[in-house]
């Protein structure tokens, strides 16, 4: 069973000696968990079951004690508390080194590309704007930004649909640099902040298209190597949908 303190301010995983019958379902085979870690995940499943039955007041008391954010609806609070216990268990089991393994910096990118109202199947998207903001994850603040317009070569004239959709004018891209120069400037901007040198960071995008379609396709068309910093990224749309239990918008 799970022991609660008098003030409902703690859930102690070490006191769990068996899996409660009302715990969350746990499927070791589907999750491919090594057998030596099975007891830990079974205890986590039991803790999750207890958290699912907690009232908002109980959740907030525990989360305040652990200095966790208490904003959000009750389902959000439950998931946040479950994630906390899961991380602590992973650290204790030496599966994860520490919470410091998270990225201290995020570079949020929202690329704009050429488009038409009805893009044909073989349409080649060309980057026309490369904006980014640098976020300090610990301070939760934007500390710098990068922005550059890019001159397309295959579709040098923007469609009216593209102008209305992006807010980018023909004059802005006519005066812009090539993609090669833009990427060089962006890489230098990362280096100036010692990102990937002294500081760990991750690219963040709203969906998979910025990196997987626009940047990758542009590098192929420009015949330049795909940048190492863009081989992995965080899809914030997917993270948001998972955390807040929202459905994918079609």
Automatic annotation (TrEMBL):
A Pfam family of this chain: RNase_T
Keyword check for Repressor: no
A GO molecular-function descriptor: nucleic acid binding
CDD domains assigned to the protein according to its UniProt record, in alphabetical order: ERI-1_3'hExo_like
Superkingdom, taxonomy of origin: Eukaryota
Keyword Nuclease: yes
Keywords per UniProt: Exonuclease, Hydrolase, Nuclease
One GO term describing the cellular component: cytoplasm
Protein name (record): 3'-5' exoribonuclease 1-like
Organism: Aphis craccivora
């Amino acid at each position: 069973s799970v022991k609660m303190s008098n003030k409902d301010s703690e859930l102690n995983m070490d006191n769990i000696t068996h899996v409660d019958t009302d715990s969350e379902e746990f499927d070791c085979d589907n999750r491919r968990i090594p057998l030596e870690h099975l007891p830990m995940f079974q205890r986590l499943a039991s803790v999750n079951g207890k958290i699912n039955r907690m009232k908002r007041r109980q959740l907030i008391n525990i989360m305040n004690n652990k200095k966790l954010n208490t904003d959000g609806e009750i389902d959000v609070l439950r998931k946040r508390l479950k994630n906390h216990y899961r991380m602590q268990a992973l650290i204790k089991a030496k599966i994860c080194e520490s919470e410091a393994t998270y990225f201290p910096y995020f570079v949020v990118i929202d690329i704009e590309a050429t488009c038409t109202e009805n893009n044909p199947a073989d349409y080649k998207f060309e980057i026309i704007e490369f904006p980014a903001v640098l976020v300090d994850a610990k301070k939760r603040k934007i500390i710098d930004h990068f922005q550059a317009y890019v001159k397309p070569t295959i579709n040098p004239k923007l469609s009216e649909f593209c102008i209305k959709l992006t807010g980018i004018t023909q004059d802005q891209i006519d005066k812009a640099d090539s993609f090669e120069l833009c990427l060089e400037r962006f890489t230098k901007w990362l280096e100036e902040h010692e990102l990937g040198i002294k500081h760990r960071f991750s690219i963040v995008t709203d969906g998979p298209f910025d990196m997987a379609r626009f940047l990758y396709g542009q590098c192929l068309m420009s015949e330049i190597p795909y940048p190492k910093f863009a081989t992995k990224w965080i899809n914030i749309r997917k993270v948001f949908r998972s955390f807040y239990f929202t459905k994918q918008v079609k």
